[in-house]
Each structure stands twice: as structure tokens, then as C-alpha cells.
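Researcher: Go.
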Amino acid sequence: MLLISILLGLIPLGGIGWIVFSGTLTTVDGLFESLIMLSISGVFFLNVFWELRDRGLLGKTKAESAKQPPASDES
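Model: Structure:
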């Protein structure tokens, strides 16, 4: 699932590259297409981030966060 999400996140970025290469980025259609493709890529890469975090490959693991004592308010 992780590789599929990465692939589906990169395909719209290739479409944005094509829009820039063809010179239609400054048209209204090009701007809206770019925004839509950026949104689609963002959703898939957010899924990749969550998947990596759940596997413990990115950020803190669940065991490390459980070992930390709760913050005390000493004011």
C-alpha cells in the first residue's frame, strides 16, 4: 500500500511538470489543474507519512512516547 501511495502521489506531480513544460501554467485552466493535482499529491503523501509513522520508520515510536513522564506544572 505504501508503494502504491508513493506512485499515485508522484503521477500528479508529473502532470504539473507537464503543465509547466507546455507553458499553460499561467492560464486559468493550468492554475486550477495544478491546484487539483497538488491536492491529490498531498492526500497520497499524507497517507505515506501516516503509514511510515505507524510502522515506526518516521518520528517517535509508540514505546518512546509511553516512556516519557507527563509534563508537570510547577508554577
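Model: The CA atoms of residues 28 and 34 lie 10 Å apart.
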